[in-house]
Amino acid sequence: MKTLEHFVEQQLSNGRFSFSTTMLKDVFDKSDKALKQSLYRLKAKGKIAHVRSGFYMIIPPEYSQFGMIPPDLFIDDLMKCLGKKYYVGLFSSASLQGASHQAVMQYYVITNHPPLRSVNNAKMVINFYSKKEWQRELILQRKTDAGYINISCPELTTFDLLNYGNFSLNRIATILEELYEFYNAKRLKLSVKQASTASIQRLGYLLDQVVVDNVYSEVLQQELTQRRLFPVLLSKRSSHQGKADKSWNVIINTDIESDL
Asked: Looking at residue 13, what is its pLDDT?
């Protein structure tokens, strides 16, 4: 191995789009200062880009005009480098499963605790959320040009959308319409066990509103009979009150309009 540039080219030829500084120290007998200088030169040439401390993406010619590559190509390697369990979730997972009406300008990843600091620079944004645990059966494998990545199943994706952040309900409703055809009763029964009560109530209401011939309400209602229910606002973005939906104990404080 003569140069760092040759190492990068070899990584690409092996279908790898990233590397860590730990890998470099195993390959090259160079000082930290010499490695930093080599990394700086390759960054200046636009052949690599820094993702986070000790981790770099490799930019092949077809992506040189963008100055980055899709996170799908390096996220699995990054999580292994950090020693984190993970899955690609929320809008990113929805897009990978066919929710094509939603343009994903940011990338969303769920990891085990403790949470990671998000990556936010001029080229990309990777949002990290965390949770204590999840059922392995709710994670799907999706093939990329760099191998396989973990993504949340449709059921877990919609629960996470309702649980994390403060996202637009209209956007979530659109995704729900697109992912509903891929719903599976067994996975829904598993995911509902770990879902918050409020997210179950909201999902039940949304399913009734946007899905014709919804067949999964009973699964959600059965779980809710085992929990203590309180009225919950449909939209977390507004504190306004509205009429109550008795089926789900949801206060309707916004109108739902799917983009489809």
From this structure: 96
- Per-residue pLDDT band at 136 (split at 50, 70, 90): very high
The rounded distance, in Å, linking the Cα atoms of 109 and 118 is 10
pLDDT digits (tens, 9 = 90+) for 92-116: 999 999 886 656 789 999 999 999 9
The whole-angstrom separation of Cα 74 and Cα 78 is 6
Q: How far apart are CA 196 and CA 198, in angstroms?
A: 5
Give me the half-sphere count of Cα atoms (radius 13 Å) on the Cβ side of residue 124. Answer: 21
Cα 192 to Cα 138: distance, rounded to the nearest angstrom? 11
What confidence score (pLDDT) does residue 107 get? Answer: 96
Look up the CATH number of domain 4-63: 1.10.10
**Is it true that the peptide bond before 114 is cis, omega within 30 degrees of 0?**
yes
User: Radius of gyration of the chain from Cα atoms?
Assistant: 22
Instruction: Outline where the chain has alpha helix (H).
Output: 4-13, 21-27, 32-44, 75-82, 90-96, 154-163, 169-179, 185-194, 197-210, 217-224
Max Cα-Cα span within the chain: 71
Of 41, 7, 48, 9, nearest to 24 (Cα)? 7
Please tell me the least confidently modeled range out of 13-17, 47-51, 83-87, 120-124: 120-124
Residues for the chain: how many in total? 260
Give the dihedral sign, CA 215/170/163/136. positive
- Where does CATH 1.10.10 sit in the chain? 4-63
Residue found by looking up tokens 């409020």 in the block: 198
